[in-house]
Amino acid sequence: MASQGLDGASGAGEKASMRILILGGTGEASALARALAPRSDLACTLSLAGRTADPKPLPLPTRIGGFGGPEGLAAYLRDERVERLIDATHPFAARISRNAALAAEAAGVPLLAVRRPAWARQPGDDWRAVASVPEAADAIGAAPRTVFVTVGRNEAGAFARAPQHAYLVRTIEPLDGALPVPRLTEIRARGPFGAAAEADFMRGQGVEVLVSKNAGGPATYGKIEAARALGLPVIMVRRPEKPAVACVDDAAGALRWLAG
């Protein structure tokens, strides 16, 4: 019986597997990985940036770390004979998405972006939209307040410019001194987070302001619902611009694209 080698080449009479690279780190990427793992007609690799020390295991071969910019990614696509590239990275991973677009064009590989819809303001929401995390820190105001910060570890340090506030900062990874302010409470947790639990937490901690990126999706929307129910202001960081490429909302859309 013909067998497929480790390099993905097929034996006589067998159809070669389509090679797919998924740039992941989101729930959409995880859903796509689980859907594609049983497919014998596809050879899929999941790539993670490595910002989370202990990512949830997924049933696909996984590489950790960067590629060395768009040139490095283009070389990887060529060397590994990748035939489809799927960018399912975080809505705020603008640099990775730019690199993916440049690399796909250079290597001649079709690219699809999976971009979940942003959260939309609902009746009762009190949002102050800002363009960046440093702007969010400034938008809290001069008077000391208790602030719940949910922008991730890498950008939490921006709030050091406003040390008068009491901060509750929730991240997956430890801050490791990234936010040197007098009043800091670190919360280590991974979503999803329900609205009722979020409301209980905010009420119990005396939260006066929520700071969030507009990540979209259901996993962390509970904090937005809780802020609405409690009448709390939300400083909402707008999404960065991303390249104009073919895109879908979710993993199901990516599966349709692969079947097309």
TrEMBL record:
<protein>
    <submittedName>
        <fullName>Precorrin-6A reductase</fullName>
    </submittedName>
</protein>
<dbReference type="GO" id="GO:0009236">
    <property type="term" value="P:cobalamin biosynthetic process"/>
</dbReference>
<keyword id="KW-0169">Cobalamin biosynthesis</keyword>
<dbReference type="GO" id="GO:0016994">
    <property type="term" value="F:precorrin-6A reductase activity"/>
</dbReference>
<keyword id="KW-0560">Oxidoreductase</keyword>
<dbReference type="Pfam" id="PF02571">
    <property type="entry name" value="CbiJ"/>
</dbReference>
<dbReference type="InterPro" id="IPR003723">
    <property type="entry name" value="Precorrin-6x_reduct"/>
</dbReference>
<comment type="pathway">
    <text>Cofactor biosynthesis; adenosylcobalamin biosynthesis.</text>
</comment>
